[in-house]
Design goal:
heterodimer, A: 5-stranded parallel sheet, 4-stranded parallel sheet, 9 strands, globular, B: 4-stranded mixed sheet, 52% strand
Amino acid sequence: MSREDVLVTPDWAEQNLDTDGVVFVEVDEDTTAYDAGHIPGAVKINWKTELQDPVIRDFVDRGAFEKLLSNKGISNEDTVVLYGGNNNWFAAYAYWYFKLYGHRDVRLLDGGRKKWELDGRPLSTEEVSRPATSYTAQEQDTSIRAFRQEALEAIGTQNLVDVRSPDEFSGKILAPAHLLQECAQRPGHIPTALNVPWSKAANEDGTFKSDADLRALYGAAGLDASRPTIAYCRIGERSSHTWFVLHELLELSEVKNYDGSWTEYGSLVGAPIELGTKG
Amino acid sequence: MCGAGQQTLELPPGTDLSRHTVLAGTVLIDPGPNDAGQTLGGAFVRLLDGTGEFTAEVVSSASGAFRFFAAPGDWTIRALHPLGTGETPLSAPGPGLFSVEVTVS
Protein backbone atom coordinates (compact mmCIF):
# COMPACT_ATOMS: atom_id res chain seq x y z
CA MET A 1 0.00 0.00 0.00
CA SER A 2 1.08 3.53 -0.60
CA ARG A 3 -0.51 6.95 -0.58
CA GLU A 4 -1.50 6.46 -4.24
CA ASP A 5 -3.51 3.34 -3.34
CA VAL A 6 -5.74 5.17 -0.87
CA LEU A 7 -5.77 8.79 -2.00
CA VAL A 8 -6.31 10.25 -5.45
CA THR A 9 -5.33 13.71 -6.60
CA PRO A 10 -7.86 16.03 -8.22
CA ASP A 11 -5.85 15.71 -11.47
CA TRP A 12 -6.17 11.92 -11.39
CA ALA A 13 -9.85 12.22 -10.62
CA GLU A 14 -10.53 14.61 -13.47
CA GLN A 15 -8.68 12.33 -15.88
CA ASN A 16 -10.69 9.32 -14.73
CA LEU A 17 -14.23 10.71 -14.68
CA ASP A 18 -15.27 8.38 -17.48
CA THR A 19 -13.04 5.42 -16.68
CA ASP A 20 -14.90 2.13 -16.47
CA GLY A 21 -14.70 0.61 -13.04
CA VAL A 22 -14.15 3.93 -11.26
CA VAL A 23 -17.17 5.24 -9.33
CA PHE A 24 -17.19 8.66 -7.67
CA VAL A 25 -19.36 8.98 -4.59
CA GLU A 26 -20.13 12.22 -2.77
CA VAL A 27 -20.84 11.66 0.91
CA ASP A 28 -22.34 14.22 3.26
CA GLU A 29 -24.86 14.57 6.02
CA ASP A 30 -26.50 17.31 3.99
CA THR A 31 -26.74 16.57 0.29
CA THR A 32 -27.86 20.03 -0.85
CA ALA A 33 -24.29 20.69 -2.04
CA TYR A 34 -24.46 17.59 -4.24
CA ASP A 35 -27.80 18.67 -5.65
CA ALA A 36 -26.41 22.12 -6.52
CA GLY A 37 -23.45 20.62 -8.38
CA HIS A 38 -21.38 17.46 -8.07
CA ILE A 39 -18.43 15.85 -9.77
CA PRO A 40 -19.74 14.67 -13.15
CA GLY A 41 -21.00 11.10 -12.89
CA ALA A 42 -20.78 10.96 -9.09
CA VAL A 43 -23.56 9.31 -7.11
CA LYS A 44 -24.45 10.53 -3.63
CA ILE A 45 -24.71 8.83 -0.29
CA ASN A 46 -26.43 10.56 2.60
CA TRP A 47 -24.42 9.81 5.72
CA LYS A 48 -27.36 10.23 8.04
CA THR A 49 -30.25 8.64 6.18
CA GLU A 50 -28.40 5.90 4.30
CA LEU A 51 -25.49 4.80 6.48
CA GLN A 52 -27.10 5.00 9.94
CA ASP A 53 -29.73 2.63 11.25
CA PRO A 54 -32.95 4.66 11.60
CA VAL A 55 -33.83 3.21 15.02
CA ILE A 56 -30.87 1.99 17.05
CA ARG A 57 -27.59 3.88 17.28
CA ASP A 58 -25.49 1.83 14.89
CA PHE A 59 -24.62 1.40 11.25
CA VAL A 60 -26.91 -0.23 8.77
CA ASP A 61 -26.29 -3.98 8.84
CA ARG A 62 -24.49 -5.98 6.22
CA GLY A 63 -27.64 -6.80 4.25
CA ALA A 64 -28.73 -3.16 4.17
CA PHE A 65 -25.24 -2.08 3.08
CA GLU A 66 -25.36 -4.63 0.25
CA LYS A 67 -28.73 -3.32 -0.83
CA LEU A 68 -27.55 0.30 -0.66
CA LEU A 69 -24.48 -0.29 -2.81
CA SER A 70 -26.40 -2.47 -5.24
CA ASN A 71 -28.98 0.28 -5.71
CA LYS A 72 -26.25 2.89 -6.18
CA GLY A 73 -24.77 0.78 -8.97
CA ILE A 74 -21.52 0.02 -7.17
CA SER A 75 -19.99 -3.42 -7.69
CA ASN A 76 -17.42 -5.29 -5.64
CA GLU A 77 -14.81 -4.79 -8.36
CA ASP A 78 -15.24 -1.04 -8.68
CA THR A 79 -12.66 1.46 -7.52
CA VAL A 80 -14.74 3.74 -5.31
CA VAL A 81 -13.50 7.33 -4.97
CA LEU A 82 -15.15 9.15 -2.07
CA TYR A 83 -15.28 12.88 -1.54
CA GLY A 84 -17.38 15.41 0.34
CA GLY A 85 -17.61 18.73 2.10
CA ASN A 86 -16.40 19.61 5.60
CA ASN A 87 -12.80 18.74 4.66
CA ASN A 88 -13.85 15.19 3.72
CA TRP A 89 -15.08 14.33 7.24
CA PHE A 90 -18.04 12.28 6.10
CA ALA A 91 -16.17 10.93 3.10
CA ALA A 92 -13.46 9.69 5.47
CA TYR A 93 -16.17 8.18 7.65
CA ALA A 94 -17.61 6.43 4.59
CA TYR A 95 -14.11 5.28 3.60
CA TRP A 96 -13.72 3.62 6.98
CA TYR A 97 -17.24 2.21 6.65
CA PHE A 98 -16.52 0.73 3.19
CA LYS A 99 -13.37 -0.86 4.67
CA LEU A 100 -15.40 -2.15 7.61
CA TYR A 101 -17.62 -4.04 5.18
CA GLY A 102 -14.63 -5.23 3.17
CA HIS A 103 -14.69 -3.18 -0.02
CA ARG A 104 -11.46 -3.99 -1.83
CA ASP A 105 -10.54 -0.74 -3.55
CA VAL A 106 -11.74 2.49 -1.99
CA ARG A 107 -9.93 5.81 -2.11
CA LEU A 108 -10.42 9.37 -0.94
CA LEU A 109 -10.23 12.39 -3.23
CA ASP A 110 -7.52 14.55 -1.67
CA GLY A 111 -9.03 17.87 -0.58
CA GLY A 112 -12.60 16.73 -1.20
CA ARG A 113 -15.13 19.18 -2.56
CA LYS A 114 -13.22 22.17 -1.26
CA LYS A 115 -10.05 21.62 -3.28
CA TRP A 116 -12.12 20.60 -6.30
CA GLU A 117 -14.10 23.84 -6.12
CA LEU A 118 -11.06 26.00 -5.37
CA ASP A 119 -9.36 24.54 -8.44
CA GLY A 120 -12.41 25.56 -10.50
CA ARG A 121 -12.93 22.01 -11.73
CA PRO A 122 -16.19 20.95 -13.40
CA LEU A 123 -19.40 20.37 -11.45
CA SER A 124 -22.60 19.01 -12.89
CA THR A 125 -26.26 19.11 -11.89
CA GLU A 126 -27.16 16.27 -14.23
CA GLU A 127 -28.97 13.44 -12.53
CA VAL A 128 -26.81 10.35 -12.26
CA SER A 129 -28.15 6.85 -12.42
CA ARG A 130 -26.11 3.70 -12.67
CA PRO A 131 -27.43 0.24 -13.43
CA ALA A 132 -28.05 -1.75 -10.26
CA THR A 133 -25.55 -4.41 -9.22
CA SER A 134 -25.68 -7.24 -6.74
CA TYR A 135 -23.12 -6.19 -4.21
CA THR A 136 -21.77 -8.64 -1.63
CA ALA A 137 -20.38 -7.23 1.61
CA GLN A 138 -18.17 -9.02 4.12
CA GLU A 139 -18.79 -9.38 7.83
CA GLN A 140 -17.69 -6.23 9.69
CA ASP A 141 -13.93 -6.07 10.12
CA THR A 142 -13.84 -5.15 13.81
CA SER A 143 -10.06 -4.90 13.71
CA ILE A 144 -10.68 -1.27 12.70
CA ARG A 145 -13.71 -0.54 14.91
CA ALA A 146 -13.44 0.05 18.67
CA PHE A 147 -16.31 -0.35 21.10
CA ARG A 148 -16.71 1.31 24.50
CA GLN A 149 -15.15 -1.51 26.50
CA GLU A 150 -12.02 -1.31 24.36
CA ALA A 151 -11.85 2.44 24.93
CA LEU A 152 -11.95 1.84 28.68
CA GLU A 153 -9.30 -0.88 28.46
CA ALA A 154 -7.06 1.34 26.37
CA ILE A 155 -6.59 3.82 29.24
CA GLY A 156 -2.90 3.82 30.03
CA THR A 157 -2.18 0.84 27.78
CA GLN A 158 -2.78 2.05 24.22
CA ASN A 159 -2.63 5.32 22.35
CA LEU A 160 -5.93 7.15 22.68
CA VAL A 161 -6.07 10.03 20.23
CA ASP A 162 -8.75 12.61 20.91
CA VAL A 163 -9.11 14.60 17.69
CA ARG A 164 -11.57 17.20 19.00
CA SER A 165 -10.71 20.85 19.54
CA PRO A 166 -8.67 21.79 22.64
CA ASP A 167 -11.76 23.29 24.33
CA GLU A 168 -13.74 20.06 23.89
CA PHE A 169 -10.77 18.04 25.12
CA SER A 170 -10.28 20.14 28.25
CA GLY A 171 -13.98 20.01 29.10
CA LYS A 172 -14.58 23.72 28.62
CA ILE A 173 -17.30 23.01 26.05
CA LEU A 174 -19.32 19.95 25.05
CA ALA A 175 -19.47 20.72 21.33
CA PRO A 176 -18.03 23.39 19.02
CA ALA A 177 -20.39 26.33 19.28
CA HIS A 178 -20.97 26.70 15.54
CA LEU A 179 -22.08 23.09 15.10
CA LEU A 180 -25.20 21.21 16.03
CA GLN A 181 -25.12 20.36 19.69
CA GLU A 182 -25.14 16.60 20.09
CA CYS A 183 -23.81 16.22 23.52
CA ALA A 184 -22.63 13.77 26.08
CA GLN A 185 -23.75 14.10 29.68
CA ARG A 186 -20.31 15.14 30.88
CA PRO A 187 -17.44 17.11 29.29
CA GLY A 188 -13.77 16.13 29.30
CA HIS A 189 -11.70 13.38 27.73
CA ILE A 190 -10.70 9.76 28.25
CA PRO A 191 -7.81 9.66 30.75
CA THR A 192 -4.35 9.37 29.12
CA ALA A 193 -5.67 10.51 25.71
CA LEU A 194 -3.52 12.72 23.52
CA ASN A 195 -5.18 15.73 21.95
CA VAL A 196 -4.33 16.10 18.27
CA PRO A 197 -7.16 18.01 16.55
CA TRP A 198 -8.02 16.47 13.17
CA SER A 199 -7.39 19.81 11.47
CA LYS A 200 -3.67 19.60 12.18
CA ALA A 201 -3.46 16.76 9.65
CA ALA A 202 -4.89 18.88 6.84
CA ASN A 203 -3.76 21.88 4.82
CA GLU A 204 -6.13 24.83 4.49
CA ASP A 205 -7.34 23.59 1.09
CA GLY A 206 -8.43 20.32 2.71
CA THR A 207 -5.61 18.16 1.32
CA PHE A 208 -3.66 15.95 3.69
CA LYS A 209 -0.24 17.04 4.87
CA SER A 210 2.82 15.10 3.70
CA ASP A 211 3.72 11.80 5.35
CA ALA A 212 6.81 13.42 6.87
CA ASP A 213 4.76 16.27 8.38
CA LEU A 214 2.16 13.82 9.67
CA ARG A 215 4.79 11.59 11.28
CA ALA A 216 6.33 14.64 12.96
CA LEU A 217 2.90 15.80 14.16
CA TYR A 218 1.94 12.58 15.95
CA GLY A 219 5.48 11.94 17.11
CA ALA A 220 5.63 15.35 18.80
CA ALA A 221 2.25 14.69 20.40
CA GLY A 222 3.65 11.56 22.03
CA LEU A 223 2.03 8.81 19.95
CA ASP A 224 3.87 5.54 20.59
CA ALA A 225 3.92 3.78 17.20
CA SER A 226 4.68 0.44 18.84
CA ARG A 227 1.29 0.39 20.61
CA PRO A 228 -2.22 -0.05 19.22
CA THR A 229 -4.22 3.16 18.77
CA ILE A 230 -7.84 4.20 19.19
CA ALA A 231 -9.01 7.48 17.67
CA TYR A 232 -12.18 9.21 18.81
CA CYS A 233 -14.02 12.52 18.54
CA ARG A 234 -17.64 13.33 19.33
CA ILE A 235 -19.59 11.16 16.88
CA GLY A 236 -16.83 9.36 15.01
CA GLU A 237 -16.51 11.32 11.77
CA ARG A 238 -13.59 13.64 12.57
CA SER A 239 -11.82 10.62 14.06
CA SER A 240 -12.36 8.73 10.78
CA HIS A 241 -10.26 11.46 9.18
CA THR A 242 -7.49 10.79 11.71
CA TRP A 243 -7.97 7.00 11.43
CA PHE A 244 -7.37 7.41 7.70
CA VAL A 245 -4.15 9.33 8.39
CA LEU A 246 -2.79 6.84 10.93
CA HIS A 247 -3.91 3.57 9.36
CA GLU A 248 -3.96 4.30 5.63
CA LEU A 249 -1.34 7.02 5.10
CA LEU A 250 1.16 6.29 7.87
CA GLU A 251 0.30 2.57 7.84
CA LEU A 252 0.43 2.09 11.59
CA SER A 253 -0.87 -1.32 12.55
CA GLU A 254 -3.82 -1.81 14.89
CA VAL A 255 -5.57 1.51 14.57
CA LYS A 256 -9.25 1.58 15.42
CA ASN A 257 -11.91 4.24 15.15
CA TYR A 258 -14.19 4.48 18.19
CA ASP A 259 -17.40 5.62 16.48
CA GLY A 260 -19.35 5.79 19.75
CA SER A 261 -16.83 8.51 20.64
CA TRP A 262 -17.49 11.17 23.23
CA THR A 263 -21.29 11.17 22.86
CA GLU A 264 -21.18 7.60 24.15
CA TYR A 265 -18.17 7.64 26.47
CA GLY A 266 -19.13 10.93 28.15
CA SER A 267 -22.54 9.46 29.03
CA LEU A 268 -21.30 6.18 30.55
CA VAL A 269 -22.08 5.84 34.23
CA GLY A 270 -18.90 5.50 36.23
CA ALA A 271 -16.43 5.83 33.36
CA PRO A 272 -13.29 7.75 34.32
CA ILE A 273 -12.98 11.25 32.85
CA GLU A 274 -10.11 13.68 32.88
CA LEU A 275 -10.52 17.46 32.66
CA GLY A 276 -8.07 20.12 31.59
CA THR A 277 -5.18 20.10 29.19
CA LYS A 278 -2.26 17.73 29.41
CA GLY A 279 0.36 18.92 31.85
CA MET B 1 -24.59 15.91 12.43
CA CYS B 2 -21.37 17.80 12.76
CA GLY B 3 -21.88 20.16 9.83
CA ALA B 4 -22.63 23.81 10.30
CA GLY B 5 -26.13 24.95 9.50
CA GLN B 6 -27.28 27.18 6.69
CA GLN B 7 -25.33 30.44 6.77
CA THR B 8 -27.40 33.60 7.11
CA LEU B 9 -26.98 36.88 8.92
CA GLU B 10 -30.12 36.20 10.90
CA LEU B 11 -29.30 34.69 14.24
CA PRO B 12 -31.00 31.48 15.24
CA PRO B 13 -33.78 31.71 17.81
CA GLY B 14 -32.49 31.55 21.36
CA THR B 15 -29.27 33.41 20.63
CA ASP B 16 -28.54 35.52 23.69
CA LEU B 17 -26.04 38.24 22.80
CA SER B 18 -25.43 39.00 26.46
CA ARG B 19 -23.92 35.51 26.71
CA HIS B 20 -22.90 34.47 23.20
CA THR B 21 -20.07 35.81 21.10
CA VAL B 22 -21.15 35.81 17.48
CA LEU B 23 -18.80 36.74 14.66
CA ALA B 24 -20.79 37.42 11.52
CA GLY B 25 -20.09 39.04 8.23
CA THR B 26 -19.82 39.02 4.50
CA VAL B 27 -17.27 37.85 1.97
CA LEU B 28 -16.63 40.37 -0.81
CA ILE B 29 -14.61 40.34 -4.00
CA ASP B 30 -12.28 43.25 -4.56
CA PRO B 31 -13.42 44.74 -7.90
CA GLY B 32 -10.73 47.40 -8.14
CA PRO B 33 -10.25 50.84 -6.60
CA ASN B 34 -13.43 52.59 -7.79
CA ASP B 35 -16.24 50.16 -7.09
CA ALA B 36 -17.84 48.73 -4.02
CA GLY B 37 -17.14 45.05 -3.48
CA GLN B 38 -19.61 42.44 -4.67
CA THR B 39 -20.68 39.77 -2.25
CA LEU B 40 -19.21 36.36 -2.83
CA GLY B 41 -21.07 33.14 -2.11
CA GLY B 42 -19.48 29.73 -1.96
CA ALA B 43 -16.30 30.89 -0.23
CA PHE B 44 -14.73 28.64 2.41
CA VAL B 45 -14.56 30.81 5.50
CA ARG B 46 -12.14 29.72 8.19
CA LEU B 47 -12.06 30.94 11.77
CA LEU B 48 -8.51 30.97 13.14
CA ASP B 49 -7.70 31.63 16.78
CA GLY B 50 -5.16 34.10 18.19
CA THR B 51 -2.30 31.73 17.40
CA GLY B 52 -3.48 31.15 13.83
CA GLU B 53 -4.81 27.70 14.68
CA PHE B 54 -7.88 26.43 12.83
CA THR B 55 -11.09 26.57 14.84
CA ALA B 56 -14.00 26.25 12.44
CA GLU B 57 -15.00 26.48 8.81
CA VAL B 58 -18.25 27.31 7.03
CA VAL B 59 -19.23 28.07 3.44
CA SER B 60 -20.60 31.56 2.73
CA SER B 61 -24.21 31.75 1.57
CA ALA B 62 -25.25 32.89 -1.90
CA SER B 63 -25.20 36.47 -0.56
CA GLY B 64 -21.73 36.02 0.93
CA ALA B 65 -22.94 35.73 4.54
CA PHE B 66 -21.30 33.68 7.25
CA ARG B 67 -21.32 33.52 11.02
CA PHE B 68 -19.49 31.77 13.80
CA PHE B 69 -20.42 31.18 17.38
CA ALA B 70 -17.11 31.74 19.10
CA ALA B 71 -15.72 32.95 22.40
CA PRO B 72 -14.28 36.32 23.39
CA GLY B 73 -10.75 36.72 22.07
CA ASP B 74 -8.67 37.70 19.07
CA TRP B 75 -9.60 35.96 15.85
CA THR B 76 -8.74 35.97 12.18
CA ILE B 77 -11.33 35.21 9.55
CA ARG B 78 -9.85 33.87 6.36
CA ALA B 79 -11.75 33.23 3.14
CA LEU B 80 -10.72 30.90 0.29
CA HIS B 81 -12.39 31.12 -3.10
CA PRO B 82 -11.42 30.18 -6.67
CA LEU B 83 -11.02 33.95 -7.28
CA GLY B 84 -8.52 34.38 -4.46
CA THR B 85 -8.08 34.59 -0.73
CA GLY B 86 -8.34 37.23 1.94
CA GLU B 87 -8.40 37.63 5.68
CA THR B 88 -9.49 40.11 8.34
CA PRO B 89 -8.51 40.18 12.01
CA LEU B 90 -11.30 40.65 14.52
CA SER B 91 -11.19 41.28 18.22
CA ALA B 92 -14.15 40.28 20.38
CA PRO B 93 -13.56 41.63 23.89
CA GLY B 94 -16.71 40.03 25.29
CA PRO B 95 -20.10 38.60 24.35
CA GLY B 96 -22.08 40.28 21.57
CA LEU B 97 -22.41 40.43 17.81
CA PHE B 98 -19.26 41.42 15.93
CA SER B 99 -19.49 42.22 12.25
CA VAL B 100 -16.70 41.84 9.77
CA GLU B 101 -16.09 42.00 6.05
CA VAL B 102 -13.51 39.83 4.34
CA THR B 103 -12.37 40.94 0.91
CA VAL B 104 -10.96 38.35 -1.44
CA SER B 105 -8.50 39.37 -4.11
